Structures are given as structure tokens and as C-alpha cells.
Amino acid sequence: MAMLAPTPAGLAGRDLLSVDQLGRDRLIELLDLADHLKMLQGRGVPHRLLPGRTLAMIFQKASTRTRVSFEVGIGQLGGSAVVLSSSEMQLGRGESIEDTGIVLSRYVDAIMIRAGAHAEVEALAAAACVPVINGLTDLHHPCQALADAQTLRERLGDLDGRTLAWVGDGCNNVCHSLITAVGMLGMEVRVATPLGFEPDPAVVAAAGPVTVTDDPLEAVAGADAVATDVWTSMGQEAERDQRVSNLTPYQVNRELLASAAPGHVVLHCLPAHYGEEITHEVLHGPSSAAWDEAENRLHAQKALMAMVMA
Ligand code: CP
Ligand code: NVA
């Protein structure tokens, strides 16, 4: 029978608001644990690392993968989840995020929040006495990046020296977290995006070397991984027409991928807008890792919870 991995050292600061907070060593430790938990899950071996622990999940925006993977994941670890829509909370009627954090800390062992402004999640983390996990803000989506990195390691092996090209909206939460994570793992990072859609300069500064170009072919040439996300993120709906107009040359399709490295993989966090940032043919084709990526949200977040809630 497979043994459980040794108890992870845990995060020094136990919040995860952005992936750079982990540092390279703990990121690798987390990904190794995620692989181990995936193996145990696949073999049907119980791994109740968090018996009796409770996770509160606050949603200020819609979710399918984040909600289900966290709720199923904490259950598989022996704990339970309380799912809270902000519109049904006093938070939605004006109670402060700080007071919400103080009160929830009296009931639960960790808080996951999906929000708009990143500063709101920082305020929650500052007020809460339990670990806070960022389940997406306008600036970062670290949980997605953990699953993406796990998926890339599965598909490509050692990532050191390999190349990832992001194509599309560069000033995007998923892009920010992904380029940070894979940069920490030694990948060369290129971003192809139009003028005005570049990644946040502070994120790039923390992420390490990133080549930004407005030429998708230049970014994708020889790339081992090509990643994209929707052109209109949650909260940007009023800008949709302008965004589609600017980003149309940045679609990930068969023609663009012809210049990528043989055996390249395509990442998309989902949900996808077919015919905009990616074609149906590519997302459902042999180079797509999007479905494993979605599954790995479960395994990577279980590893994260085991590290911050143990
Ligand atoms: N990728 C992702 O976060 O999906 P959901 O919005 O469905 O949670
Ligand atoms: N960038 C997208 C990601 C969704 C998972 C959004 O913020 O809507």
C-alpha cells in the first residue's frame, strides 16, 4: 500500500494570495505533494490529512471548477466546506471584509475567497487569524497556476529551460499567476499581447525575465507550451467589443500552433469562449492539456490545503 508523503513543512506565511509568496522550494514541495495525492486518489487510497477541518469559501463571482474542486478536495482530506455567496452574506449588505474575516476565523480553519479587487483579499488576510487562499482576483489566480504547473510537469517533465508562450490578454489574472509560477520553475516566458494589454509591471518585476511582444508568431515559435484565457474576464463585460476587436489577431488556432515545438501542449484554465481566444478544434485536440489542467485543480489545491491547514 502506498505511503502518505511526509508531513509538508507548511507555508511560513500561511496565506496564498499570489504564487510568488510560496518561493521556488515550497512550490516544488507543493507540486510533489499534489502528484502524490493524485496517485493516492487514483489508487483509491484514503488520505485524510485534515480530519475535522473546515474551509469557508466566499464567492463574489461565478465559479464551476474552483468551487467544486475545493469542496470535493476538502472532503477527500477528511474535512468539510461551507460555501458562501457574498450576495447571501452580510458582506453583500455592507459588512466589512475585515469584520467578516475576524468572525469567520472563529468558526473555520481556512478561508478561500474569489473576489474582484485584490486589495480586498489582502484586507481579509490581514484581518483573519486563519489562512486565506485567493481563489481568483482581478490580479491573480494562484490556485490555477498550481494546477497549470502540475500539468506542465506531467506533460513535459523537468520545466527548466523549456519555453511557455502566453497569447492573448496579457493583463490577466491567469497570465499573471502562470508566468510567475513557470518562471519560478525555470521556464523561459514569452507574452504576445497587443499594446495596452501588457502584464502588470509589478507582476512582471516579481516574475523574473519575461519577453513581451505584440507578435504571436514570434512568441509561439519553438514554444513547448502555449497558454491563453478569455479576452473578457469577469467584471470586464462592458469592454467586450473593444477587447474582441483588439485581441482578434491573438487567437490560439491550428495555424499559429504550426510554429510551436513538436509535442507542445496547450493550456486553458476554462471556461473557454470558442472562436475568440481559442478554437474548438485546438481545445479538444491532441495538444490540449486543458482537461487534465481542470482535474489538477483538485490535486494541487488538496496539496495546498494540506500545507496551510495542517
Ligand atoms: N478556471 C477556473 O477558475 O474556473 P472557474 O471559474 O469555473 O472556477
Ligand atoms: N480571467 C478569467 C478567469 C476565469 C477562471 C476571469 O477572471 O474571468
How would you describe the overall organization of this protein?
By secondary structure, this protein is an alpha/beta fold. Helix 1 packs across helix 12 (about 290-310), helix 2 (about 65-75) crosses helix 12 (about 290-310) and helix 6 runs parallel beside helix 7. The longest helix has 21 residues, at about 25-45. The strands form 2 sheets. It has a 5-stranded parallel beta sheet. A 4-stranded parallel beta sheet has the order 2-1-3-4, sandwiched between helices. Mean pLDDT is about 95; it is low at about 1-10. The protein has 12 helices and 9 strands. The chain has helices at about 25-45, 65-75, 95-105, 120-125, 140-155, 175-185, 200-205, 215-220, 240-245, 255, 280-285, 290-310; strands spanning about 55-60, 80-85, 110-115, 130-135, 165, 190, 210-215, 225-230, 265-270. It is globular and about 55 Å long. Helix content is about 40%, strand content about 15%. Strand 3, helix 4 and strand 4 (about 130-135) form a beta-alpha-beta unit. The protein has 2 domains: about 20-140 and about 295-310, Rossmann fold (3-Layer(aba) Sandwich), CATH 3.40.50.1370; about 145-295, Aspartate/ornithine carbamoyltransferase (Rossmann fold), CATH 3.40.50.1370. The protein binds phosphoric acid mono(formamide)ester and norvaline. Norvaline binds near residues 172, 229 and 234. Norvaline binds near residues 136, 172, 229, 234 and 269.
